[in-house]
């Protein structure tokens, strides 16, 4: 099959490799209908040291089950499925509590052992917990918009939803979203779904913030840093934002977040933090009882409800995809996203 | 009147100074019945640079209203009152949201402008918001235990309650309390009141952990650091604690906290952090979706309910006081607490 590997910063290659095979009775093999590139894939695209061995890439897909191990009972050959970006057994105590990304049996795609999902075929470990069937959709005839929206449930939309959910967004809430990437825009849509009264989107790329407005952003703030903080404080009568959804992962976004969060409010982070230490003391979080939440989104917890919303036409989270390329052009997909020529690129094997 | 001043580390003096007077029509003057020394007073007791000018000390009292400004309507001369450790108008939007320590009109005792409460008399700014009447108690005849319990509502017990409240402690919760000081023990009692199923107290002073057990601690862990983390993980079947209440304020306690918090759990801090930066990235909080909460306790928000519980005999939070000294012996009270010969010392003017 064809599959994507990264050999170093900026060096993405699609290569022919052996098809994946069942390794455990709990595995399934899925034929990819759509995969995509994630904003988090751009971190190694910037920083990975050059290597003789390529690292398999990709952790998002919708596809059709080809083969299942003997212990798999929840999915069968021919099922059209979404794969959450992390695999998990979905039965352990942490999974039952809604934190599937902490499943001790689970793990991440994109290592030599697990393989990547930017490929023609994928081995899905713990398939009973890690694949969710999309009922009544034939991927051969479904339109690109529907496929894109279902693909967004593999990670990006439900990562935005997780930010909003952990931020306790609800009716009456003022939400500020830091970052106008695909996750930030998804967080806008999710906040609107959860009933937020006011949604301030901090971003400076008009083509993106326009989608944010379409999805429910009531205000757009292009300023950053201290100017951005001042602008949000001004918009909130000096009170600050009940909830700040941080969808960037860099320190300036974190600093902006504690600058604008209201006393007692919540900063919910889903941008993968590119830092370990950050201010949390009297001058940042503690003094105003601001709370910090967020982490790798347990998208599995939210999947059935979101599939229902997509199939009912209530939401179209796939609008974050503004390009679809053949799998063989994955390197170009990375380039387009890195240069911000594309917001998010889907891949068609 | 006699009042307490700190002139530098270890240098506490009780001096005769002019009586406080009404400065604003919203002020009240209160005659102190009991004041006390706080664990947080020990931070300057360790580190304050020597100074020619003493800093007024103390932020906890119960007392009797002597005089009120012309704009004060909620309390009157003769009322027996508790003063929350921060003053606030209790009418602004943040106060109404339950975060009175963020009141823009409010502030802290213990500066030359506001004065301290380890004194015979105290000026209380914003008296309508900053004093709470205790009904049907005559301080002249009330026993020491009742006075101590009411005094504990000025700060220590309700700071412990705030930790548990922000930690979302409830039925079924496993709580670990880091620190066996007066706030930590109060957090044990508050967690039990909120219905915690299991309460692990991390502390090594048997006389203190014994009170913790009396108040509901189901397990006591004397080990610290990695050994302490391992012990708590062992007690929780390797899962960790839903809630960790950090009542110390030093980095080792913070590190212990993220070591034992369960995926998706909450670390709630009420020990005043003696650090600004701390780990919050993938290796500490983010990776397991652990949340961070807490800050200066808005004890005003919890006062009426707690006064009711104390008067009904449901709780006796004043048991953290193991000594009462005359106000003139305040320096000795600091020494006893600093040397851990006393847990918490009340002062009787």
UniProtKB/TrEMBL annotation, chains A, B:
Keyword tRNA-binding: no
Alcohol dehydrogenase-like N-terminal domain mapped to chain residues: 25-126
Annotated keywords: Metal-binding, Oxidoreductase, Zinc
Molecular-function annotations in GO: oxidoreductase activity; zinc ion binding
SUPFAM superfamilies for the chain: GroES-like, NAD(P)-binding Rossmann-fold domains
Record-annotated Alcohol dehydrogenase-like C-terminal domain positions: 182-294
Matching InterPro entries: ADH-like_C (IPR013149), ADH-like_N (IPR013154), ADH_Zn_CS (IPR002328), GroES-like_sf (IPR011032), NAD(P)-bd_dom_sf (IPR036291)
Cofactor: Zn(2+)
Superkingdom classification of source: Bacteria
One Pfam family in the UniProt entry: ADH_zinc_N
Protein's UniProt name: Alcohol dehydrogenase catalytic domain-containing protein
Taxonomic lineage: Bacteria, Bacillati, Actinomycetota, Actinomycetes, Micrococcales
